[in-house]
Prior knowledge:
Elements: H1 11-27, E1 28-33, E2 46-50, H2 57-67, E3 72-77, H3 86-92, E4 96-98, H4 107-117, E5 121-124, H5 144-151, E6 157-163, E7 180-186, H6 202-224
Parallel strand pairs: 1-7, 2-5, 2-6, 3-4, 3-5
Antiparallel strand pairs: 6-7
Amino acid sequence: MSRLHRPKAGFWIRLCVVLIYPVVGTIFRIRWRHLERVPAPESGGMIMALNHLSQIDTLLMARFVWQSGRIPRFMIKSGVFGWPVIGRIMRGAGQIPVHRGTTDASRSLRDAVVALEQGQAIIIYPEGTTTKDPTNWPMQAKTGIARLVLLSPDTPVVPVGQWGPHRMGRPSLARLGKRRTAQASVGEPLDLSHWRGAEETADNLRAITDEIMSAVRDQVAELRGEPAPTEFFVPTRKYVDKA
Length: 243
């Protein structure tokens, strides 16, 4: 599948493409829906919100964003940037470290706002980790994405639901050559400008986050071909991905 648009990409992004494309294509049978709903680069910055099913779906979604014609800037836990080789690639590709629970926690939001002002595409997993919902629906998300919306209220938020990569299972000789189908569906961009000037209260942050995740969940429902639950699963304890 060719790209919808062709913005300029530097060395590190193209290195990621060279590394990720064959891996993802070997593991998955890919099906994208409504890629044309992703705003073109000339329209300016955008925020893309995704549900999170498995650790490998980050590679899958990186290819998805690239094929939509945008250069992805993922907001990724800061620990990854300390990994040998991978950390260097992440820094070179302009990905944004998220400093959780530290005095630098707000820095990632400032970096994201600057990127949006430069017309870039910020990619976020609002749940903060893979879903803990027993049936793999999007669970209740963290409110970091709402804070970003309040800092950049005129930026469109594109909801994307994905389904399939969690079914891959552990690698084994028996699974060689047996690709799993991985799907993603793009919803209509959300206009959240009505939140401009709103106070950063707990209620407002939750309302914004749930509005976005409801749109993501609708796309997951379309892929699954079944009604979405009316409530988000709330984990009984706090989950944080290990660095």
